[in-house]
Records
---
Amino acid sequence: MTYIVKMISDHWLGCETIESVCVKGVILPEDHLPHTKLLDLQPLPTSVLKNELFQGYFTFDHFNPIQTQVFHSLYHTDENVLVGAPTGSGKTVAAELAMFRVFGNYPKSKRVVELTGDVVPDMKAVMAADVIVTTPEKWDGISRSGQVR
C-alpha cells in the first residue's frame, strides 16, 4: 500500500513537496484505542483527600466517574496527566485535585500566572511561574511562538 503525502510550509510561500510513502509490511496494532475506557468504579468520597480544608472546597460528597478514575494519578503522583473529556464532565475538579497535591506537598508560596483571553502574556512572568493556568488554545499559541518572543 502506498500513500501520497503533500507537505506545504506554513512559513514559506510556494514551499511544498509531494512524496509517496510505501507502508507495505507495516504492522499496525489491531486494537489501538485512542482513549482509556471509563471503568465501572465505585465513586470515591471526597474524604479520600484526607484534608478537611480541601474537602470543604467541594459542594458535593463524591467525585464523578472521570474524577474517580484519574484521582490516584492526580492526587498521589507527580506524573503528567492529560484529561480529555466533554464539557461539563469534571475536568476542572480534576485539575483542582492536581493543584491540591502541589500545594499540599510543596507548601512554599507559588507564583501563579493566568493566561486567558486576548491579552499578550508577559513571557518573563510565564517563565518564572510555578503554576500556569490556561486554556489549551492559549497554551498552544504561547508554546508555539514562545521561542520568537
Note: The two ends are 43 Å apart (CA to CA).
---
Amino acid sequence: MTAQDQIRNKDAQMRATINQKLMETGERERLKELLRTRLIECGWRDQLKAYCKEVVKQKGLEHITVEDLVDEITPRGRALVPDNVKKELLQKIRTFLAQQSNI
C-alpha cells in the first residue's frame, strides 16, 4: 500500500467516524434541517424547481427519466448554494467536532 493509499484510507475512516458521531447524536438531522431551511429562505429551492421545469420542457416529459433529471440538475443545484449557507454549515460542523473530544 502506497503512502497516498494510506492517507486516503485514513481520510475515509475519519469521515466514517465523523458521520457515525453526527448520526448517533442526532446532529446530522439538525444540520440537514438547518440546510433545508436556509435553502428555502434564500430561494434556492424555487430556482431549482424552475430549472427542473425548464429541463423537462426542453427535453419533453416522455423523453426524460428521473435519473436524467437528477444528473442534469445536480451540478447547477450545488453551484447555486450560496457561500454564506455553506460557511454557516461548515462552522456548525466545526463547532460540533470541537465539542467531541473522542474523535
Note: The CA atoms of residues 83 and 89 lie 10 Å apart.
